[in-house]
Amino acid sequence: MSNRNTLVSRHLTSDGVVVWTRCACGRLRMDLVPTAGAPGLTAGPCPHAHSPSRE
Ligand SMILES: [Zn+2]
Q1: What residues have CB less than 8 Å from 27, skipping those under 6 apart?
Q2: pLDDT tens across 15-49, in order?
Q3: Which domain of life does the UniProt lineage start with (predicted)?
Q4: Dihedral angle over CA of 19, 30, 45, 27, nearest 10
Q5: C-alpha 14 – ligand 1 centre gap (Å)
Q6: How far apart are CA 55 and CA 42, in angstroms?
Q7: How close are the terminal C-alpha atoms of the chain, in Å?
Q8: Residue 54 confidence class, pLDDT cut points 50, 70, 90
Q9: Please, which residues have CB within 8 angstroms of residue 28's CB and are 6 or more apart in sequence?
Q10: Cα(29) to centroid of ligand 1, in Å?
Q11: Which residue in 45, 37, 42, 46 sits closest to 16, CA to CA?
Q12: Cα–chain-centroid distance for residue 5?
């Protein structure tokens, strides 16, 4: 029952909420969740599938 992604930190910026998570493989990943309904942004792509339905 280990979490695949661990929440590292979350910051509210002028562009939206930036969420840093650590993948199960140890890589950091950044997700930007915009406040104005703009498309989100994800950085730090991992070779692993992060979709919850996989593995
Ligand atoms: Zn990974």
Answers
A1: 44, 46
A2: 899 999 888 888 888 888 888 777 877 777 676 65
A3: Bacteria
A4: -90
A5: 28
A6: 21
A7: 13
A8: very low
A9: 8, 20, 21, 22, 44
A10: 9
A11: 37
A12: 8
Centre of ligand 1 to C-alpha 33, Å, is 20
CA separation, residue 3 to residues 16, 22, 26 (Å): 25, 10, 12
Q: Please give the distance, rounded to the nearest whole angstrom, from the Cα atom of residue 50 to the centre of ligand 1.
A: 7
**Residues paired with 43 in a beta bridge:** 30
**Residue whose token pair is 């593995």:** 55
Residue whose entry in the numeric block shows the structure tokens 């498309």: 39
Band the pLDDT of 8: cuts 50, 70, 90. Answer: very high
Q: Where are the domains of the chain?
A: 6-43
